[in-house]
Amino acid sequence: MILVTGATGFIGRTLVEQLLKDGQQVRCLLPAGTKLPDHWPSQPEIVEGSLFDEETLFRAVSGVYVIIHLANAQWWGRERDLRHAELEGAQALIAAARAARVGRVITVSHLGAAPSSAYPLLRYKGLVEEALKSSGLAYTIIRSGIVFGEEDSFINHIAMQLQITPLFFLMPGRGEISLHPIYVADLTQAIVRSLERMDTVDEVLEIGGPEYITLEDLLHTVMRVSGISRFIISVPPYVLRWMIGVYARILPRSLITSQWLDILATNRTTRLGNTFNYFGIQPRRLEDTLLTYMRGKRYGLRSLRYSLRRRPRVS
User: Mind listing the pLDDT tens digit for each residue in 253-273?
Assistant: First the structure.
């Protein structure tokens, strides 16, 4: 039995679908009343509750040989949410996994994650990594570049911003930061293959797509694929952080968050061949993949629905 936390999130939805197609027994820990995706080939076992309900959590981990931990607050949470959902949630899961004698915990982290990072998102990801390494449990930590796909909260949010902002786009810094995007299906395939590869146990593996791209080039790529052209204006990141603080007081959610800027604060790349060397996967190119779902798509109404949607409650 495989337990997946964060199963209805961006990465989790694709992962659970793949596991079910492969005939794996899957259990999902989900908040009560969560709606399951319609496209899953079958229904996994569901345990309703949270990482902070000890009884529910122990029931979720009982009889499980691997936990794939994906629950996070990185795209919508404030710093206190990051601490609660990321670090304290991982600590609760580790304690329950030890008690239930779970074989291994697999989690997805970020390139650049470090407990000493000045940026909250990367710092809490690093603290989660350290908690796993010192847990006494077998683990696999997959540090990935920016994960993109049809429902991602990074490149899609760039397209939303382009759609709703007339004439210009505010770019943090000079756009020279290098990113290493990876398609969500390639990442989930790497997670699936790590289940059977013993050489991934007790390892921190860094993976990304087949190319590096600067932020400025990424913006031009999204404009080219989406057909939305805007002037790019370079703005100091601290100004954007101030603007985000203002938006957060007006709207339930902001398209660009502090965590979004944390990711863009430093180069986030690894060796180009790692995904193939570790998992035998030839990752898909960014622009070719964007063309399969982004071209001609309208983002105006979608951005409004997102901005007015209530933040998830971290219990």
Answer: 667 777 888 888 888 899 999
